[in-house]
Specification:
The complex is a heterodimer of chains A (192) and B (438).
Chain A lengths: L8 H6 L6 H45 L6 H22 L15 H35 L11 H27 L11
Chain B lengths: L2 H17 L4 H17 L1 H16 L6 H13 L3 H13 L5 H14 L5 H18 L4 H12 L1 H4 L4 H10 L3 H29 L12 H8 L3 H15 L5 H18 L4 H35 L1 H11 L4 H16 L4 H17 L7 H18 L8 H9 L5 H24 L2 H4 L7
The chains are: A mainly alpha (192), B mainly alpha (438).
C-alpha cells in the first residue's frame, strides 16, 4: 500500500488500512457539510422565531393600536419559504427523512446497498435540477422586479437563500451517495 | 395511454421505490417529475420547478406547521410534563391501575400543547414510567399505556396531521381542531376504561398507590395552570375568530417558549429546540414538496376526479366505500408513517368521499372524514409490526420485551375500533360542535 508523502512508517502502522477513496471523500465532505447544515438549520430556526415574533407583534398591535403590523402576512410567508429550505439539508444529513423500512430487512445486503446508493443519487439529481431551476426562477424575479404588495420586498431576495439551501442539500446527497458507495451510510428513518 | 393508466403505472413505480427504501419525499419528487414529463413534457416541468418551490413554501397557511412543531419542542423542554403528570397522579394514583390512568390523562393534557404523537409519548414516558415501575406495575401495561396515550397527542388539537389534512382539502383548520376535541376526550376516557378493566382481570399488573389528600390534590392542580392557560389562549383565539391559525400557533409557541425559559431553558436548550424543530419540519416539508409535484401530475391525468365520478356513479353504498377506505388506511398504517399516508392518498380518496352522499353538507362530511382518517392512521403507530410509539416507549423501559409491549397494546386497539364505529354511527359526536365555531 502506497504511503503518503511525509508519512513515517510508525504513522502508517498506527493507522487503519487506507480507506477507499469514496469513503475518505465522504468523511471529508461530512466534516464540512455537517456543521454547515446545522448552522443553516439554526439560521432557519431563528427566521422561524423572527416571523413568530412578527405574528405575535401583529396581534399586540391590533389590540393596542387597532391595526395589525404593516405587511405581517408577507413577512411570515417569505420567512417561511426561507426557513423551510434552510432546514432541509440538516434533516437529510441527519438521516431524518422518512423511509418505509419494513422491507429493507428482507433484502440481501448487496441489494440493500444498491437501493440506498440509487436513492441518494436520484435524490441528488432532482435537487440539482431544482437548484438550477430555482436559480433561473430567481433571476426572472430579479428581471421582472417582482416584489411584495405592502412592503415592496423584492422576491429575488427570498430566492437567494433558497438556492443556497437547495445547493447545500444537493451536496449532502453527494456526500451520502459516497457514503452509501463505501457502505458506511447509516440507514435513515424519520419520526412522524 | 389514458390518464388512468399512466397514474396507475406511476403509483406502482412509487410503491416499488418506497419498498426499496427511497425516502418518501424524494420518491414523490422523482415519480411526480417523471409522470409530469410523460403527461405534459419536459419544458412545463422545468417551468414548474423554477417557481413552484417558492409558491409552495411562501404560503401563509403552511407557516402554521413549523410553528406548531416549535411549540411542541418548547413544550417538551418546558418542564411542564412532570407537573402535568403529578397533577393527574394526585387525583388518580390511589386507584388500582391509577398511575397508568394518570399517564393517559397527562398525555391528553400534554397533547393540548403538543401536536405530535411520538413527542407526547416519549415526554410522558420520562416522567411516568419510573413511577409505575416504583409501584410494581407490569412492563406490559405501563409501556402499552404510554404508547397508546401518545396517540392522544395528535388527536387532541393542536395536531400537525390535521393541519395538513385541512390544507389538502381546503377546510378550516379551526373547525377541524374543534371537531377533534370530543373524539379526543372519548379516546382518553376509553383508554382509562381499558386500564381499569385490565387491572380488574390482572390485579398484579397495576397495584394501588397511596392516596393523596385533598390539600395535595388541589395544590397539584396548580401545576396544570400554565398548560390550561396556553390551550385556552391558542384555541380560544382561533375559535373566537380572533387569530388566524398561524397567529394562534405563533402565540402558542411564544408562550411555551417563555414558560420553558422561566423553567430554566437556556441557550443550549433553545439550540436543541430549534434543531429538533428543523429536523422534524424538514421531514414534513420534503414530503409536502414531493406530494405537491406528485399531486400536480395526478391532477394533469385527471385520475382523481375520474375515479371519484366513477365510484359516485357506481351505486355502491357510501358506507361500504368509507369502510373500505378506512380498512385500507389501517393496513397501510402498518408499514407507512401517517404524514406520508395522508399526503399521498388524500388527494385521490377525498374526491371520492365528496362525491358520495352521507346525508351531510360537504363541509360536515369533509371534517367528519378527516377525524376518522386521523384516528385510523394513528392506530398504525401502535400496531405491530412497526408501531413507532411502541418501539420508542419500549426502548425507554429496559427489561420489558418488545412482544410484551405489543401484547399490552391490544386492549387499547379494541377501544380505538369501538370509538371509530361510534364516530361512524353518530357523526354528531364530531360535527355537532361546528355550529358553535365561527
Amino acid at each position: 500500500m502506497a504511503m503518503l508523502v511525509g508519512e513515517t512508517t510508525a504513522d502508517h502502522a498506527a493507522r487503519p488500512p487506507a480507506a477507499p477513496l469514496a469513503r475518505r471523500a465522504a468523511d471529508w465532505l461530512d466534516g464540512i457539510l455537517n456543521p454547515a447544515s446545522a448552522a443553516l438549520a439554526l439560521l432557519g430556526g431563528l427566521v422561524l422565531v423572527a416571523f413568530m415574533t412578527v405574528s405575535v407583534g401583529s396581534i399586540a398591535s391590533r389590540v393596542v393600536f387597532g391595526s395589525p403590523l404593516l405587511g405581517d402576512y408577507e413577512l411570515v410567508e417569505r420567512g417561511s419559504a426561507i426557513a423551510i429550505f434552510a432546514i432541509l439539508p440538516y434533516t437529510h444529513i441527519k438521516g431524518g427523512n422518512v423511509v418505509v423500512d419494513m422491507f429493507v430487512g428482507m433484502m440481501a445486503p448487496a441489494v440493500r446497498r444498491f437501493a440506498t446508493l440509487a436513492s441518494e443519487v436520484a435524490f441528488g439529481v432532482i435537487m440539482a435540477i431544482i437548484t438550477w431551476r430555482l436559480a433561473l426562477g430567481g433571476m426572472e424575479m430579479y428581471e421582472y422586479h417582482d416584489a411584495s404588495m405592502m412592503l415592496q420586498i423584492p422576491t429575488w431576495w427570498v430566492f437567494v437563500p433558497m438556492v443556497l439551501s437547495s445547493a447545500l442539500l444537493t451536496l449532502v446527497c453527494v456526500q451520502r451517495s459516497l457514503a452509501a458507495l463505501s457502505g458506511t451510510l447509516a440507514p435513515s428513518g424519520g419520526e412522524a | 395511454m389514458s390518464g388512468i393508466a399512466i397514474s396507475v403505472i406511476m403509483f406502482l413505480v412509487l410503491v416499488a421505490m418506497l419498498v426499496l427504501s427511497v425516502p418518501v419525499g424524494a420518491a414523490l419528487l422523482l415519480v411526480g417529475g417523471i409522470g409530469y414529463v410523460i403527461v405534459a413534457g419536459v419544458d412545463p416541468l422545468l417551468n414548474y420547478m423554477s417557481t413552484a418551490p417558492y409558491h409552495q413554501t411562501a404560503a401563509y397557511s403552511l407557516s402554521v406547521i413549523p410553528l406548531f412543531v416549535l411549540m411542541g419542542q418548547f413544550a417538551t423542554h418546558s418542564g411542564l410534563s412532570a407537573g402535568i403528570f403529578n397533577a393527574a397522579n394526585a387525583w388518580l394514583g390511589h386507584r388500582r391501575g391509577g398511575i397508568a390512568m394518570a399517564g393517559i390523562g397527562a398525555c391528553a393534557a400534554f397533547g393540548a400543547v403538543c401536536g405530535s404523537s411520538l413527542a407526547t409519548a416519549a415526554t410522558m414516558a420520562h416522567v411516568s414510567l419510573p413511577e409505575m415501575k416504583r409501584f410494581g406495575y407490569s412492563g406490559s401495561l405501563s409501556t402499552a399505556t404510554l404508547a397508546a396515550g401518545g396517540t392522544l397527542g395528535i388527536l387532541i388539537p393542536p395536531s400537525v396531521i390535521l393541519v395538513i389534512y385541512a390544507i389538502l382539502t381546503e377546510q378550516s383548520i379551526g373547525k377541524l381542531f374543534a371537531a377533534a376535541i370530543i373524539p379526543g376526550i372519548l379516546a382518553t376516557i376509553g383508554y382509562m376504561v381499558v386500564v381499569s378493566v385490565y387491572v380488574r382481570l390482572n390485579p398484579d399488573a397495576g397495584p394501588a398507590a397511596p392516596k393523596a389528600n385533598y390539600a395535595q390534590r388541589f395544590k397539584a392542580l396548580l401545576d396544570l395552570a400554565p398548560v390550561a392557560f396556553v390551550f385556552v389562549i391558542v384555541m380560544g383565539g382561533m375559535y373566537g375568530g380572533f387569530f388566524t391559525p398561524t397567529e394562534g400557533a405563533a402565540v402558542g409557541a411564544a408562550l411555551t417558549g417563555v414558560i420553558a425559559a422561566v423553567n430554566g431553558m437556556r441557550w443550549q436548550g433553545l439550540v436543541d429546540c430549534l434543531l429538533g424543530t428543523a429536523k422534524l419540519s424538514g421531514m414534513i416539508f420534503l414530503i409536502l414538496l414531493g406530494a405537491d409535484l406528485f399531486n400536480a401530475f395526478l391532477a394533469l391525468t385527471q385520475m382523481p376526479t375520474d375515479t371519484a365520478a366513477a365510484i359516485g356513479a357506481s351505486g355502491w353504498s357510501p358506507m361500504m366505500v368509507l369502510a373500505c377506505i378506512l380498512l385500507f388506511y389501517l393496513v397501510l398504517g402498518c408499514i407507512m408513517d401517517s404524514m406520508s399516508m395522508i399526503l399521498i392518498t388524500i388527494p385521490v380518496l377525498f374526491p371520492i368521499i365528496t362525491h358520495l352522499d352521507f346525508g351531510m353538507t360537504p363541509e360536515q362530511t369533509a371534517i367528519w372524514f378527516g377525524i376518522l382518517v386521523l384516528i385510523v392512521v394513528e392506530v398504525g403507530l401502535i400496531t405491530p409490526p412497526f408501531g413507532l410509539n411502541v418501539f420508542v416507549i419500549n426502548s425507554l423501559a429496559p427489561g420489558v420485551p418488545l412482544s410484551e409491549s405489543f401484547r399490552g397494546v391490544f386492549p387499547f386497539l379494541l377501544s380505538d375500533f369501538i370509538r371509530v364505529l361510534l364516530l361512524i354511527a353518530f357523526p354528531a359526536i364530531t360535527i355537532g360542535i361546528l355550529p358553535y365555531i365561527k
